[in-house]
Amino acid sequence: MFRNLLSRLFSDEPQPSALNSQDSEVAIAALLVRIARADDHYGKAEMQRIDEVLMRRRNLDASQAAERRAAAEMIEAEAPDTVRFTRHIKERISLEDRIGVIAAMWEIVYADGKRSASEETLVRLVAGLLGIPDRDSALARQGVLASMGLE
């Protein structure tokens, strides 16, 4: 499954096609895994938060979310550098969905209750690469912090 997704995601076709719903969710989940791994500590709290985000985004049950995260972990390990990876996602996911992805990324950053400069820097880079203005990313971050009681 994940080899086929990698080839669809990173093909050099001139007019990129939209990903189907499941493929786009696995690609987004892989981006969340990349954020979680940015500080070289990918722990249980981050895995659980990724599962929660996946359950909420597409109304999955816990085992479906864990399965999707496991596929995303394999995709993330094989995906190219963050710039190329994010560019391919941007080309295939709507703007509205990209803003939601940034909010989900902020959730992952703060899932373990610790600030990590490397994770925060990566979210800011990805937001720019996804075409999300700094202001929108900052608003998403503030919303996440408030919802998690970390303000």
UniProtKB/TrEMBL annotation:
Span of domain Co-chaperone DjlA N-terminal: 26-142
Entry-linked InterPro entries: DjlA_N (IPR007791), TerB-like (IPR029024)
Pfam family, one: TerB
Protein name per the record: Putative tellurite resistance protein B-like protein
Source organism (scientific name): Paracoccus sulfuroxidans
Species classification: Bacteria, Pseudomonadati, Pseudomonadota, Alphaproteobacteria, Rhodobacterales
